[in-house]
Amino acid sequence: MIKKNNYWLNCLTILTLTSVTSVNPVLANDIRIDPSTSTDYFNGESSIEIYVPPPENSTNGICSAFLEPGIKSIMGKYPNNWGIQVETLAEGTVIYSHNADKFFIPASNTKLFTTAAALHKLGPTASIGNRSLKDWIATTNLVSNNYYADTLLRHLGGPAAAKASLSQMGINPNGYRLADGSGLSRNNAATPRSVISILRAMYYSPEKDIFYASLPVAGVSGTLRNRMRQTPAQGAVLAKTGTLNGVRALSGYMNHPQYGMLVFSILANNPSISGNALVSSIDKIVLQVSMSSPCN
């Protein structure tokens, strides 16, 4: 019993502790499809006060009605730096939405577009060189290999060919921009809603198993092996990370005990906050969602 109590106390600690920093965040929603657009900055202090909902309002986790103030507290005073969309996979019910249709630099979340297009156009039995496409997809997403991702895009015929393939899957071409396959270019852009559409389309596609298995598992494998360990998210979240200077992203699936399978996308652009702080905030948001439940 003591061990169980300590486990949940650790989870609560992760959700409620954060540092106070002074920052000059970037307005992520100033990203436009026009490649000549540059990022704007504004001044101010970011003081994050974590919202802890009253326990009497929920008997099992955090009532979903408290996600709004809870996540707002994690984002701090400058919510324009964040884009978040969380939906149930099957019904498309929105659990949480914030700047879902604004453009952000997605970093390596671009690889979700690249690998989805490759699987759709080339098929699961294809090979490149002496390796199967399945191996290329796994290496691209699990360990976020940039060379593999850019090679996949070249093999597809470039960004235009990839967009054509994704359009055949029902992905809105106006919701993202591909400048490369890896996400290293800061000219890539995507909305959280467009990332969600990729995740949903791939889950119901014939290539679902290859795509799904290629994603890192929280606290277990790939680029998520050291994140969210010993929390409710461990083993329940499969998602693609994204990392550039001032950019962190996490998008994927969550096997939720109350809502069933969720799809989510979290994109954060802020070059004035450390990467570790952005990652910590993203993980806190994921934990908020994983511990939420319908209100009584």
Concise synopsis of the structure shown:
The chain is an alpha+beta fold and 296 residues long. Helices cover 34% and strands 20% of the residues.
What features would you describe in this structure?
- With 296 residues, this protein is of the alpha+beta class.
- The protein has one domain (2-293): 3-Layer(aba) Sandwich (Beta-lactamase).
- Helix content is 34%, strand content 20%.
- It has helices at 2-16, 67-75, 110-122, 133-142, 146-156, 159-168, 192-203, 208-213, 275-290; strands at residues 21-23, 44-46, 62-63, 82-88, 94-98, 127-128, 131-132, 176-177, 189-190, 237-244, 247-256, 260-269, 292-293.
- The chain has a five-stranded antiparallel β-sheet with strand order 5-4-12-11-10, with helices on both faces. A two-stranded antiparallel ribbon has the order 1-2.
- A hairpin with a 2-residue loop joins strand 6 (127-128) and strand 7.
- Helix 1 (2-16) packs across helix 9 (275-290), helix 3 (110-122) crosses helix 5 (146-156) and helix 4 (133-142) packs across helix 5 (146-156).
- The protein is globular and about 50 Å long.
- The model is unreliable at 1-59 (pLDDT under 50).
